[in-house]
Amino acid sequence: MIRTISTAIATAAGLALGAASACAEETRWALVLHGGAGVIERGDMDEATEAAYRSALGGALALGAAMLEAGAPAIDVVEAMIQALEDDALFNAGRGAVFTSDGRIEHDASVMRASDLQAGAVAGVRGVRHPISLARAVMEDSPHVMLQGAGAESFADEQGLERIDESFFFTERRWRAMERQVEAMGLPVPPRPGGAPEPEPVREGSLQQMEREHRFGTVGVVALDRSGEMVAGTSTGGTTAKRWGRVGDSPVIGAGTYAGGDCGVSATGTGEYFIRLSVAARICARIELASEDGQTAADTVIQDELTAMGGDGGVVMLHAGAPLWSFNTSGMYRAAQIAGGEPVVAIFDDEG
Ligand code: ASP
């Protein structure tokens, strides 16, 4: 199933690019984001939940669009938008992240800048309110690209980034989803963490929806600012009931996040496949080396190669200033806008 961005936005992006080349001193801005992909089907989702997702996606998009319109740098836009999504318990990032099989929350995040291929990433960090900000600090204030675990947390402290008790990230529905998963795996259910609120009822439908959505809910943004700089970023809690310090694709530069030349990608899906295929860098490499257009490159990697391997998920991306997406699941939470264009917010595969 090929799911790509609407003709309306692509046409508008083409117009925007034409305008940009006619007026080379000021690049037109562009923005695309995702909030995860999976089996997300009409009829499975109640109206209130769908409205909440659309409002969250639209709110993050509006925040980024306003910043870009005002001339903010892409890195600030990506950080601010992902911070907002990290604070929203709907998404599997920051607050609302999934639990490990032993009842902890371990975040992964990364960011990459196109102009100089600078990148920063963190894996398996606990108690950092905004993992995306830590990834940015790694890029800007350390000589390294990826930090993990306790060392990354010490670096967060040195950088004065906000630390927060792990109970802040606790959500009942993610806890219940983990309980179901560890039971299915034949593992003991870990004790409820200290500081967690009293158990509250979770609708069976909501749990089933999360299972159908698979483990996803990762967030990602690619932004092109008026100066022509492009930045891609991704943030996640990983996969439900992950074990043994598992790290997915989201913090792996080239797999879950990539920005180089005029191509920027953020991915979501079963991370193991995205790492093995180097999905994000592979799409950009097809554009650069095989002279493919962005949509063809994305569709080849997602619809053909990822699907053939048995992987599921998708990407949002900017190529030459145009927002694109491609996913092989029945839905992906996503949104896009370009300078002078209307916002597009979509969830199901038959939209956008
Ligand atoms: N890609 C993420 C991971 O495997 C999961 C997701 O996209 O939701 O960690």
Give the helix/strand layout:
Blueprint: H1 7-22, E1 30-38, H2 47-69, H3 74-86, E2 107-113, E3 119-125, H4 131-141, E4 146-148, H5 149-158, H6 172-184, H7 204-212, E5 219-224, E6 230-236, E7 257-260, E8 263-269, H8 271-277, H9 279-290, H10 294-309, E9 313-319, E10 322-327, E11 331-338, E12 344-348
Parallel strand pairs: 3-4
Antiparallel strand pairs: 1-5, 1-11, 2-3, 2-6, 5-6, 7-8, 8-9, 9-10, 11-12
Bound molecules: aspartic acid (ASP).
What does this structure look like?
This protein has 352 residues and is an alpha+beta fold. It has one domain: (Glycosyl)asparaginase (Glutamine Phosphoribosylpyrophosphate, subunit 1, domain 1). It is 37% helix and 22% strand. The protein is built from 10 helices and 12 strands. The protein has an 8-stranded mixed beta sheet with strand order 4-3-2-6-5-1-11-12, sandwiched between helices. A 4-stranded antiparallel beta sheet has the order 7-8-9-10. Helix 9 (279-290) crosses helix 10. The two termini are 14 Å apart. 56% of the residues are buried. Residues 11-25 have low confidence and may be disordered. Aspartic acid binds at residues 36, 92, 215-218, 236, 238-239, 248-250, 256, 268-271.
Report the strand count: 12
Evaluate the radius of gyration: 19 Å
Poorly predicted runs of 5 or more residues? 11-25
**Total number of helices:** 10
**Percentage of residues in helical conformation:** 25-40%
Task: List ligands, each type once.
Answer: aspartic acid
> Which structural class best describes the helix and strand composition?
alpha+beta
